Amino acid sequence: MVNIPKTKNTYCKNKECKKHTLHKVTQYKKGKDSLAAQGKRRYDRKQSGYGGQTKPVFHKKAKTTKKIVLRLQCQSCKHFSQRPIKRCKHFEIVLIESCAGKMVDEMIFSCVCCGGPGCCGDRGEGPVGGGIDNEPVNVVVVVVEPGSQRRKMW
């Protein structure tokens, strides 16, 4: 089972960035086949009429899994890049947990309870302002899907 975080700090190749930035991670999916493609038009023309199957149909499939391709979108310039990873039977994109066990907001990669870049338990700081009139906010959002287990990534 492979767990990938929803955000990843990696290099952006776009000419606007050319540096390490935060990227949103999704899984690549193949698009729908076009009916107007030349090969499809040729195949449909050959198949039409009487005569049965005209082209060979492949039956000797060897692989049981596909290689996973990650689709990375840069948060600063919105550029997309793709990164293949190894084969696996089970693949998930999950939230990241900080080392103190608190949930981390996946979009801004900061601790939900203190607003800092890491976990407030590491620095020994308490919650900081951010609510109405800069009052301390002590809310920690924990998202756990039914039937799934919370575990640390690293």
TrEMBL record:
Signal sequence region: none
Any single biological process term in GO: translation
GO MF terms, alphabetically ordered: structural constituent of ribosome
Keyword Ribosomal protein applies: yes
Region of interest (Disordered), ranges: 29-56
Keyword hit for Amino-acid biosynthesis: no
UniProt xrefs under InterPro entries: Ribosomal_eL44, Ribosomal_LSU_eL42, Ribosomal_zn-bd
A GO-annotated cellular component: ribosome
UniProt KW keywords: Ribonucleoprotein, Ribosomal protein
Family according to the record: Belongs to the eukaryotic ribosomal protein eL42 family.
UniProt protein name: Zinc-binding ribosomal protein family protein
